[in-house]
């Protein structure tokens, strides 16, 4: 049994399989072809933080594959009333076939997985957001072909998205140019869990313009992630120069794409003319969450489809 708790839980060969499978599954969806490989299977979705895309993509995706979902939040379950996570994992995984969790610390999801009888998927933690990066890379491949050897510029917070990009670059053979304000740097130990990584898979730049120079993809995220709201004012000040604007896009490659996992704050981490401009693929990126996650759920439950 496999869990998907961080990007490094799968290998390059498995990602190549999942990207080709996601394209096939997306094709079926677009042509209204019925595809119910997960009939009678149930996905439990546990949300300890808010969500639009993650909920809709997992829920719609599971129904489209013939399965059903159970939606739990901290507020309307015993999870919010201090039932031990181990007990929750034992119980929920006896009644369902797959569990998706959005929570705070990675340690929580790791503990849940340890006591779960069924595969567990990370739907975002403070440390990682692997389903999102899988969708981002699939989107890049759809628009531009292989990401191997390419350069991704990360502008902004050294957060869950940034950590996951680092793992993906290490595994899939591209480079991430990271530029964050001082005090918000990526933590290599956290991103790679203290394990060795490919030297040069990421480079740090003090100036976001330098990170964007000749990039194939420019990407950013909110200045304040869920769970860090108390730091909002300090972050607004610190991140003022880390707003992706037309000038940054102009130093990237002429055919560079722009991505943002959303939700976005126009005028903060990205200017409206960039996110709503011709290089932006954010709507494809959001839609692709569903297609890659359908491929992932199929893979975790049924293995490779010949
Ligand atoms: N990108 C993403 O995970 O969006 P939600 O927070 O809306 O799920
Ligand atoms: N980094 C953001 C991503 C939201 C999808 C957060 O954790 O809130």
Automatic annotation (TrEMBL):
Stretches assigned to coiled coil: none
HAMAP family referenced in this protein's UniProt entry, alphabetically: OTCase (MF_01109)
GO CC list: cytoplasm
Family assignment from sequence similarity: Belongs to the aspartate/ornithine carbamoyltransferase superfamily. OTCase family.
Primary residence: cytoplasm
Keyword hit for Ribosomal protein: no
Origin superkingdom: Bacteria
Name the record gives this protein: Ornithine carbamoyltransferase
EC numbers for this chain: 2.1.3.3
Function: Reversibly catalyzes the transfer of the carbamoyl group from carbamoyl phosphate (CP) to the N(epsilon) atom of ornithine (ORN) to produce L-citrulline.
Compartmental location: Cytoplasm
Annotated ranges, domain Aspartate/ornithine carbamoyltransferase Asp/Orn-binding: 149-300
Pathway info: Amino-acid biosynthesis; L-arginine biosynthesis; L-arginine from L-ornithine and carbamoyl phosphate: step 1/3
Catalytic activity: carbamoyl phosphate + L-ornithine = L-citrulline + phosphate + H(+)
Pfam family, one: OTCace_N
Gene Ontology terms: biological process: citrulline biosynthetic process; L-arginine biosynthetic process via ornithine
